Input
Amino acid sequence: MEFSISQLLDNLSDDKFVAPKVIEKKLGISDDSSGHKLQVAFDALERIGILEKDKGRYRRLVEDGLVEGRLRCSSKGFCFAIQDVEGAEDIYIRESRLSSAWNGDRVLVKVTKDGMRRRSPEGEVRLIVERSNPTLLAKVKATEAGYRAIPLDDRLLFEIELVPDEQFRDLNVAVNKLIHLEMVRFPLGSHLPKGKIAQVLGDDAESTADVDLVCCKHNLPRKFSNQVLAAANSLPKAVRKVDLKKRLDLRQVETVLIGDSSAISLEKSDAGWELGVHIPDFAAYIAVGSILDETARMRVRTSFLLDDTVIPMLPEIGVLQQPEHLTMSVLFKLDSNGILTEFEIYPAVITTSVNIGSFTEAQEILDGRSEKG
Output
């Protein structure tokens, strides 16, 4: 389980010591490799004076003039730490005091000079708590020292050493090309940052497909890891008897699937109509804290429809792709004039009998412009 220094510090306070095992549980760490990385982080934070250790437990140290903020830089190299506190002053940080922090990084800053008149306070980066550029767009060039990637974002004023991997052993194929670069190592002292090619996009931004460009620029994940796919594949393939407990059985109600997931039903009632809106109940199959749950949480802010490309939160869950599947359903009661009188939400089970490709197609059917109508 990956974690950031920001997440680690968020789980520590200055009023009590906490054991590493407690932090491991809060961060969802269960493997030895991540546990080792956590201990390395504890040791480093203690060494630089961010944490205090007592009998194997840790707490945050309070230090006057130490604030947290997001680094914002200009293309000319002027950088400021923007604090979260509303109305707080931005802190100017000279290039020599950045400690290898980049534009967008979350940092702990020590204020070294108070602001006066129209001048901002000055500070220095004590700690980078979260990196904001795990991937980026860059142009590749060949040099005598090797291959270098130049970020397209002109606020990132550095070169990245390109290293080959199994997918791109010959880096010469990317020279003068636009690439999606994945960071391997951020700058460390006098050592250059290192990165590898995730994808060669084209000669320049104009010749690259818009969807590819947007996904790469904003680091929108389009693929799932093998572990996530395996977890999804291990889930039940059909509704089981145990799944039906405490669920409203709507399998006998005529229900229409629209698109990949949304379904609707409409029944005549004594008072008018009952309209049902049904969405797949992912929570019924995905345990809290599981790899699927963590994946969905990480991708929730990037799950959307981009042109004709869908960037989903989760891979396909087999049982939820079947005509018979579990749902969270809202049943709306409408009077004879179509006025909403009440509604209720139920965990339910439905069976879809008709599949309409999209809401656009559904509207065409209603308008009498589709042969399916």
Observations:
- The two ends are 50 Å apart (CA to CA).
